[in-house]
Amino acid sequence: MKSHVWRPLYVVIALVVLILIVRVFYVPKDFGIWERGYMYGFHNKDNEQWWKQFKVKYRFDSEYCKDCHSDKYESIMKTPHAIINCENCHGPVLDHPSDPPKLKIDKSREQCLRCHYPLPYPTSGRANIRGIDPEKHNPGVECSMCHNPHKPTLEGMK
Amino acid sequence: MITRRNFLKNAVTGIAGLALPLAAIEIVDPKKLFADKGETQKVRWAFLVDTYKCVGCGLCVKACKLENEIPYDANVTRTWVERYILTKDGRIFADTPKGARDGFITSKIDLGEGRFQDIKKEDIEKAFFVPKLCNQCENPPCVQVCPVGATYQAADGVVLVDRKWCIGCGYCIMACPYGVRFFHPVYKVAEKCNFCYHRINKGMKTACVSACPFGARQIGNIRDPNDPVSRIIRTERVSVLKDEYGTRPQVYYRGISREVI
Fold first, then answer.
1. What pTM was estimated for this model as a whole?
2. Nearest CB to A41 within list B153, B211, B255
3. Which among A13, A58, A84 is the nearest to B67, CB-wise?
4. Residues A149 and A135 sit within 8 Å (Cβ to Cβ)
5. Contacts of B27 (CB under 8 A, 6+ apart)
6. Which of the four CATH numbers 3.40.50.300, 3.40.630.30, 3.30.70.20, 1.20.140.10 does domain B144-191 have?
7. Taking the CB of residue A115, how many other CB atoms lie within 10 A of it?
8. Which of residues 56-75 of A touch B (CB under 8 A)?
9. Alpha carbon distance A22, A60 (integer Å)
10. Residue B84 and residue B82: Cα distance in Å, rounded?
11. B59 touches chain A (CB under 8 A)
């Protein structure tokens, strides 16, 4: 073949080689086809580790709270509110008591209304929870002014 | 005879040829790819939602947003709860105000665009709450469409997003039939529920499962025959969402009816 064919071909080959060389250095070592195959498993392997190391905020472990707050723990465990985890109202524990030293308690009316706004829906468990009309039942006042969330029965009224 | 011209030419070609690493021209072997699909994994996460137990308190959504650092007041969330109201005259209403982050504290249905409608108690035939989250499909369409390999499925079935690799093109958000994906308002990349990957790998439950006071949400390993979730899925009547899409979702539901989409 004449050189007028070879010369542009060399340029093309050189370009391909260049791209392949750049690719070797540019693509991370752990990027490739992993367990889920070519269609679903094409990724950086170290990203799985990244997600595993994401910070845990909620412990959701009442036993952890029990050590210091045994009075509250024992009180609530005797009531229907025992099914509600401490952190649902007290917020994520993280490394409390060192960090944060004080938890922000959600005492809003809305927090209680999540369950105690009456929605008597047939076929839903919500119908079985007693509720109040927030517009008629002492509007504007925090529920915990009168009711003790750790002892919600009427004997527990403050 | 060796000329200077020929010598230089050959030298350049030779060096270029040597520099070409074998890995760069590796050809994908189809047999090897099929072999990779073998189900030898010991863990495959699956989720079970019991809609009879859900009361729509939304504590799961609140916990999820705080655990996974999703901006609390932005109208995006990894999991949400829908309310369905079916009336006696055949009308269907569904809403999820703020993804039910604050639960359902009014009987008025949010119709969108600031319009609300109250439905009389005696007109309601049935009404219930349906928690939604990523289905971690066995055939995830969101993963197939990713042009850069930023979203992928781990060996245990959880679909994850690589925030460093995502270019924010939004194909995956369009591809998900369940509307589970969204843009993270801070990192500007695709975001989705990952079954609290950091928690389940430490032996904890997901934030939403632990936050639920009523046990409406459960997570388990479908490959373990003694796992309570696995047993319920095998032995009880459960269904999945949008089965006809062929995505093979791994979030199973008890007690949903055909109006739930």
1. 0.87
2. B153
3. A58
4. no
5. none
6. 3.30.70.20
7. 24
8. 56-58, 60
9. 49
10. 7
11. yes
Tell me, what's the pLDDT at B74? 96
Q: Assign residue A60 a region: left if phi > 0, alpha if psi is -120 to 50, beta otherwise?
A: left
Structure token digits, residue A150: 């750790």
Q: Which residues of B touch A47 (CB under 8 A)?
A: 152, 160, 162, 164-165
pLDDT in tens, A1-52: 678 888 999 999 999 999 999 999 999 999 999 999 999 999 999 999 999 9
The ipTM is: 0.89
State pLDDT tens for residues B17-53: 887 766 666 666 666 665 555 567 899 999 999 999 9
pLDDT tens digits, B125-165: 999 999 999 999 999 999 999 999 999 999 999 999 999 99
Spell out the domain ranges in chain A: 3-52, 62-156
